[in-house]
Specification:
Blueprint: H1 8-15, H2 19-26, H3 34-46, H4 53-60, E1 65-70, H5 76-89, E2 95-100, H6 105-117, E3 122-125, H7 135-142, E4 147-150, E5 161-164, H8 166-179, E6 185-189, H9 195-210, E7 220-222, H10 230-241, E8 249-252, H11 255-267, E9 277-281, E10 295-298, H12 301-317, E11 327-330, E12 333-335
Parallel strand pairs: 1-2, 1-3, 3-4, 4-5, 5-11, 6-7, 6-8, 8-9, 9-10
Antiparallel strand pairs: 10-12
Helix pairs in contact: 1-2, 1-3, 5-12, 8-9, 10-11
InterPro entries: HTH_LacI, LacI/GalR-like_sensor, Lambda_DNA-bd_dom_sf, Peripla_BP_I
GO molecular function, one term: DNA binding
Domain HTH lacI-type: 6-60
Length: 342
């Protein structure tokens, strides 16, 4: 049986009045008597009438919905970002439509086309690992669709951006490893296309330099899909162990990479931190419950979601074109676990 939503016609039929009278009563028009308005409202409640959002969007030229694109919903960092987005959006009367690219450029394009065709009022976008052509986003941006970029951003689109201080997070994690006596520190990172990869590796390199440790290119391994393909992480770790001077510590630069590195090392029977130390980026609450507990850079994900949504709603509701944009940089926190302390 096909579901059919209750319409103004159903209310009009039930009360024996015209649809125009029902419509005006629902709009609280002065033309309709208080008694008739009360009858219409009671009937609408009884029939569980809800205004058609598509019809409203056509009338108001606004859908009161925003689209969100992330690489993966089943990721503690992005799930927390989404919680932050929804906490602001729903409070302001906006619905949220969430999509995921699964790190696919093609799927990113499909999702953005789908969201824009639904007449969303704006977009919150974190780029996929495969994205190095931004023409699909630039086209929507030039047409006037409000867009805010978060976490994985690009300088090629002039709009509001919300990021974490990735340099600081990686610098402090690397510095912590050095101060604990580790000298041969490897890094397992995401795709070289991503802004977060370049910023985190820059922090890692600068910490090595500050402590007089020579940067060794062979100690840096990239996982293009950032841990979504587990075999990538296994391969990266295995290559590190084939080096003549194998590393005594690993910095993993994302949530999936951190958990994947831990899993790979434990499968190999490697004692952590006795044989090799491990630090990473992770927002998972499980990091402190693992054995050993992980040393991690925790990002303010909820705050990122809230900030990005507030900036997007400013773009949507501003009556004049916005020409000055903000790049908001949030501060991460280094949480020390037993994976780096002998």
């Amino acid at each position: 049986m096909k579901f059919e939503a209750v319409t103004i016609k159903d209310i009009a039929k039930a009360l024996g009045i015209s649809t125009s009278t029902v419509s005006r009563a629902l709009r609280d028009s002065y033309e309709i008597s208080p008694e008739t308005k009360q009858l219409v409202l009671e009937c609408a409640e009884k029939l569980n009438y809800r205004p058609n959002p598509i019809a409203l969007s056509l009338k108001e030229k606004r859908s009161r919905s925003i689209g969100v694109l992330v690489c993966e919903i089943a990721n503690s960092f992005f799930s927390q970002v989404i919680n932050g987005i929804e906490s602001v959006a729903y409070d302001k009367g906006y619905n949220v439509i969430i999509t995921q690219s699964n790190e696919s450029f093609e799927r990113e394009i499909m999702n953005l086309h789908s969201l824009s065709s639904r007449s969303v009022d704006g977009l919150l976008v974190s780029l996929s690992t495969e994205t190095n052509d931004l023409s699909h986003l630039e086209m929507l941006h030039k047409k006037g669709l409000p867009i805010v970029l978060f976490d994985r951003v690009t300088d090629e689109i002039e709009t509001h951006k919300v990021v974490v201080d990735n340099f600081k997070g990686a610098y402090e994690a690397t510095e912590h490893l050095i101060q604990k006596g580790y000298k041969r520190i490897a890094a397992i990172a995401n795709s070289e296309f991503l802004s977060i990869t370049n910023e985190r590796l820059a922090g890692y390199k600068e910490a090595l330099n500050a402590y007089g440790i020579k940067y060794n290119k062979s100690y840096v391994k990239h996982c293009f899909y950032g841990g979504m393909v587990f075999s990538e992480i296994e391969d990266a770790v295995n290559k590190l162990f084939t080096l003549k001077q194998r590393p005594d510590a690993i910095l993993a630069t994302s949530d999936k990479l951190s958990s994947g590195c831990l899993k790979t090392l434990l499968r190999r029977g490697i004692a952590i931190p006795q044989e090799i130390a491990l630090a990473g980026f992770s927002n998972s609450d499980l990091a402190e419950l693992l054995n050993p507990s992980l040393t991690v850079v925790r990002q303010p994900a909820m705050e990122m979601g809230r900030a990005a949504t507030e900036l997007l709603l400013q773009l949507i509701e501003n009556k004049r074109p916005v020409v000055q944009f903000e790049k908001r940089i949030l501060t991460p926190e280094l949480i020390i676990g037993h994976s780096t302390i002998l």
